[in-house]
Amino acid sequence: MATDFEIGRVVAVDTAQVTIELNRDLKGMSRITYEGPQEVGRINSYVIIPVGARRLVAMVTRIVLVEEAEMKADRTMVALPAARRLMKATLIGTIDGSVFRQGVSLFPVLDSPVHLAGRSDLDAIFGPVEQAGDKNPDSDKPGCCIPIGESVVMQGRPIRIDPDAFFGKHAAILGSTGSGKSCTIASLIQAIHEQQAVKRTTFVILDTNGEYRTAFQKQKEDGTWEEAATRRTLFIPSDPSITADRLVIPYWFMNAEDFVRLFQASKGVQRPVLLEALRISRNEADAVSQLALLREELIHEFNRIWSLSGKDERTSRDVRDLAEGLKRRIDQDDLTEAWTEAMGTYKITKEDVDNALSKIIENATKFIDDNKFPKVLPADARKAIQDAMDPIYQKLTGAHIGEGGGSSGRSADAPFHFDKLKFRSLYLEQVLRREESGGARARDYCGTMLLRIDRLLADRRFDFLFGPVGEALPKPSHALATFLRDILGIGPAAEANIKLTSEADLPKGVLPFYDRQRNKESAFDVVILDLSLLATEVLENVTALIGRLILEFLQRLGEHGGEGARGSFPVVLVLEEAQNYIQQPRSSEDESISRTVFERIAREGRKYGLSLVVASQRPSELSKTVLSQCNSFIVHRLQNPEDLRYFKEIVPGIYGPMLEQIPALAPQTALVLGECVPAPALVRIREARPVPRSRDPKFYRYWVADQAPSIDVEAICILWEGTKDADNKEEAK
Prior knowledge:
Elements: H1 2-5, E1 6-13, E2 17-22, E3 30-33, E4 36-39, E5 46-51, E6 54-68, E7 82-96, E8 99-102, E9 113-116, H2 119-126, E10 146-151, E11 158-161, H3 163-168, E12 171-174, H4 181-194, E13 203-207, H5 213-216, E14 217-219, E15 225-227, E16 233-236, H6 256-262, H7 270-282, H8 290-309, H9 316-332, H10 336-346, H11 350-365, H12 379-397, H13 420-437, H14 442-445, H15 447-458, H16 463-466, H17 479-487, H18 512-518, E17 526-530, H19 536-560, E18 571-575, H20 593-608, E19 610-616, H21 624-628, E20 632-635, H22 641-650, H23 656-659, E21 669-674, E22 681-685, H24 699-704, H25 713-721, H26 728-732
Parallel strand pairs: 12-19, 12-20, 13-17, 13-18, 16-17, 18-19
Antiparallel strand pairs: 1-2, 1-9, 2-7, 3-4, 5-6, 5-9, 6-7, 7-8, 10-11, 10-22, 14-15, 20-21, 21-22
């Protein structure tokens, strides 16, 4: 039967491609086989090259007609030109028996026969058209069981992906605007939920365009929403007018680096000031009294003096200035009550501290000459300074100075509640005064940072992060755990495990994620975080915060959850329009908190069960680190030369000839390649039902409509302006 399928011979071989000359007796570009008529030489079709007991699989990428004229031996005449039909094909894998594996370890020789791929060959590559295991694949090795569409070349043959390979090693869905990326993502998730064996999933979609809700929920006539399918979906809007369900991420969930990037604190003075204020704020529950603040300041300043005095540099003047500044502060501040408590708690008096500081100033001043030039403190002076501080330091910390004692409590990174108003008016000011007492112009250097902090805290657009302007957010119990349960779709915790804060202490609507858990709403398979109305300047910070919290939670689950806990709770994080917050740096100074976080997830997330699905219309603007970590690609039409060149640099060179067709792909058609499919395939992606809200606008329909749609401009602008009183709408009219 092999002769029924034979179409030509190999006439050239290299490490990635073969050149095939079609048989001259092949009439037209089709072959009649016992399986029926088959086209020959169709781009993206497959051919088989037998090599011993194995069969090499190649994908057709080019076919040409070459005319050759033959000169007779006596050179008296030339025969009419004869056409040679040549076909190029990329080697993609090997069939051994009935098992297909990607890659080749042996190559054909010249004149090897080339066959059309028969039904049994295609079954070996892509699996049977009707798979017996579709309803209940092996949970440990599911294989290619999730249908994403049909082959464009092989009519009626479904193309399936391996979910463990697709999600386990990150994936990218690329394509120009309008090419079908959103529908592909929705269709893929819907296909997973249609599998009878699937009982639960955890998809978290960062929806920057507000498209995905309609793909998983449908709106009823009364304006409310219900599930569009059997799978439960949680939609969290960023619209500030939807107070009951809106996205709220409490500011204290941010770590030190998040605050540094949000407040744009520069290196030098601003960053240390901010971090110290944050550290004190995180411990404000333990530092509500004057005594606690006094203790904190003494420990901090003694550590600074000790650090400077031990340097082999000319630091004598710096040591003196620090000691004089601390002495002035404790003299000026009204700390009578604190000193009384210090005597009772630590057996320390103000006179003890004054005497110690006077000795430090005396020893440091000896090594500043008449011209005000500082000198290096010798060993005996350092010893005298240590002896002056150590008795007080030991009473405050239980350790000798220089032995690792000092400030205890939480670090600036701990996601622990603190009062934003006290942070700005009390702790930040305290740190600034401390710095200025040593002669530094800290307030001048921190001016731009302070202005930005004040602006962000006073801007109602950032209520979702900092809470109402001028009001302190209450401290609820288990806030971080409740938030993570919410965005990860995990059901409410058992009452035996935690006790949530009551509505009396935390009114409804302040933290909507808390309300959902108090209402005992069940687990969700898909969580859509609508970020479309977030201010652009905080988009990077918010996406980075969400990604980091999920990653660090899964890391801690793996470390502290017991044997087998690592990777036991897989999460898929879908990054829509990822180029907006994971950009390739344009210079060495181009810093981005979200790029840092998602590059870390791309490198480490797989180990903990966190997968990225990166969707972008501009791959050339995406971080190379993130894109290069993706092992599976669904590529729709890309027409920008920069995007095409960038993508070709990312994927293996063997795919090069296949990528030439990407600019000409039709909508809903994509080239699927990588570890998720047995072989690269041109696929007509299955339709999403229902579809995301990403349809192209119908301009002509609007132009020819008999009646223009009614647009309530005033209502939209009132919401935009942030007017809370609904009665203002009538006044606006």
